[in-house]
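<derive_structure_tokens>
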Amino acid sequence: MKKVKLFAYLLVYLFAVSACDNDDNDDNLVGEMDRNFVIAAADGGMLEVRLGEMAQERGMSQSVKAFGQMMVDDHTKANNEIMSIASSKGINFPATLSTAKQQKVDSLMARQGMAFDSTFANMMINSHKETIALFQNQNGTGRDAELTNWAAGKLPALQQHLNGAMMLRDSIRNMTNP
């Protein structure tokens, strides 16, 4: 009888311990961090593509149009890569821009001529600074190795984009203020 009681207590203890196990919560938290990265990276990437398309259509200078084409090409490729990774991990990829990013598109849409070019260049600088910070954060704190490695691999190109956007801004300033 003592053995039966001991066995029963042991079973109750094991069930209680397994119910209190919060490893699943840690996994969900880690998953949420990586999920948030994917959503933010997708939002930023879609913004870059949309602004790049607008630059090709509405840009005054050839350098703005060329930079816009580079944004479309590079960020479409990156978006496709992260979409594939996200899909393999069951992360839903956003279909549309966030409200904040759409407001940036709307703001640029209201500009014309050299004001468009100048605003585009400044948006590229700000957007790439945000994106670099996001990717550096994922590289330092992300839990998913595939996403973290992907983010780290994109940082050099993002830095080149930022440098190019700053050069673009400076060339636009020189054209408007000779």
